[in-house]
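User: Predict structure, ligand beta-D-mannopyranose.
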Amino acid sequence: MFNPGATNFQGKILLLARVEDRRGFSHLTKAISDDGIGNWQIEDKPTLEPEPDKHPEELWGIEDPRISWLEELGRWAITYTAYSRGGPLVAMALTDDFINFERLGPVMPPEDKDAALFSRQIDGQWVLIHRPIVSSYVPGAHIWVSYSNDLVNWSNSRVLMHARRGGWWDASKIGLCAPPLETAEGWLMLYHGVRQTAAGAIYRLGLALLDLENPLKVLHRSDEWVFGPTEAYERQGDVADAVFSGGWVLDDKTGLLKMYYGGADTCIALATASISDVLEYIQKCPEPREERIY
Ligand code: BMA
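Assistant: Predicted complex:
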């Protein structure tokens, strides 16, 4: 089990975990805990399974969910990677109860993943963050946004944030982690950056802060990674040296941010931070400057 999405649900914390079966295909299984720390009730059957007969794009499984509570709809949206014959793509499902799911099907063609919705409409439109692999003409994999009126048809796609190049920790490939978190200071964005080394890739996490009314405006971006593999369960496993988060949950009363993440594509772990510390940190980070990127 690894790479879960996370949300508040009926006063508890619900994770939708990626479970990889022995064929190598993934499905999603929910786990619920009162405090989000211990006593997880893990469903003994898959909660959301690939349905390749009805949804051919789910042929080789469904992976890496992100969960967004959509204020205007009063429902949760789950964006996940469907592993199709043509490569990974972004699919979406809606739910009221995490028992029944309304699948909307593919919303982005392959190759595309690491998608999540902003929790409310901006200027009357839904906004999706995603990470297409665009073309061999443009090096690197960058974070994009697209806009929609109906959650199905997406357009007006543009780059939100570029992967850096050269020696940076987030050179060549970046992607959204947990859905952006709305704060008074802006949308807090957690993303992963991939560094290719002689020994393989290292997946680490960084932060950015986006303007509340124009999320294309990146106010601050961390130059340094803020979370990386250090513990044995993050350094050793199916994929070494990978921390990969798909969900975080803020306790409004205490200000404690709980970040759930996959360790080495093998286990699920939890890290916490105080939201005020995180916001203080990101506001001290520089504004992104393109000349520093290229
Ligand atoms: C990414 C995704 C994640 C995975 C990570 C590290 O590309 O496929 O599911 O956790 O690689 O292997």
